[in-house]
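Training component of the fellowship. As part of building independent skills, the fellow (R.M.) carried out the full modelling exercise for a liganded target. The chosen ligand was acetoacetyl-coenzyme A. The inputs are recorded below so that the supervisory panel can assess the work.
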Amino acid sequence: MKVGVVGLGAMGAGIAQLCVEAGLETVGREVTAELGEKARGRIEHFLTRKVEKGQIEAFDIGLLSLTTEVADLADCDVVIEAIVEEPAAKQALFVELERVCRADAVLATNTSALSVTEIASATSSPQRIVGMHFFNPAPLMPLVEIVRAELTEDAAFDAAFALGEQLGKHPIRCHDTPGFVVNRVLIPLLNDCVRVLDEARVSPEDLDAGMQHGAGWPMGPCTLLDLVGIDVHLHASEALYDKLREPRMAAPPRLVAMRNAGLLGRKSGRGFYSYDKT
Ligand code: CAA
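Fellow's submitted model of the complex:
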């Protein structure tokens, strides 16, 4: 089994890490060699930590090869796309993947809020396109949503489900509806949390403590938004609002102001909290 991962940002690198950990030959594609190397460094760091902590015996980073060419994914059995959440960019990529990959290769998207059916509609083989939606941080979160688009055939769906299991995840089956299962619930909930900051005049620290200690969340909503990225959350929120028109899906003005100011969370060094970027 050979897996391709297109886009080695936080999500793609996490997915590639899972593939290497599962002993699968993995081809990672980034737009520049530098970005690819940065992702490889991150993957090696986290897998080395797992060895040091005795969670795994060893890993073979040699299973991961890097490329800047989509053509190098030609012999992959499954390709997982984790690039920017722009429909046109994703459609163009899937058209290219369809051209270079074997006819029986399964093509998966890690989109969190776009329609898999719409992405697949740009291609002439939508039957082999499926959603594989991982959660952030992908190596730590057990869930993967396996999303059946309108024209996905069983062979592709079942192969994506089996790969999810092989990566040690807990896959669930769902259909291509806005936000699928978890984000349909989590995004409006996080928006509620942000609105409560202003309504209840509570600090991010106290809101986080409230949801951790009063509702059993593993991390508070402000910490979680900083982890996911304010821009990523807003993008998903706007995409859901666009489709469902529910007021709770609409982007909270506080988050829009944060995005405009470049306060994107951990990745920019500052969001609700400040982070050391080194
Ligand atoms: N990749 C790989 N390994 C990582 C990592 C990453 N990104 N981040 C941390 N780790 C490793 C670290 O090596 C760390 O160990 P060391 O510090 O010893 O090196 C180890 O994982 C454990 O880290 P933590 O101590 O921080 O782990 P934790 O037990 O506190 O749990 C958590 C962390 C799993 C993230 C937990 O806090 C949690 O479940 N939070 C909620 C996350 C969540 O809800 N995610 C969903 C976001 S929504 C989404 O993703 C949908 C979307 O489409 C936008």
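The panel noted the following from the submitted structure. The CA atoms of residues 237 and 251 lie 6 Å apart. The chain is about 45% helix and 15% strand.
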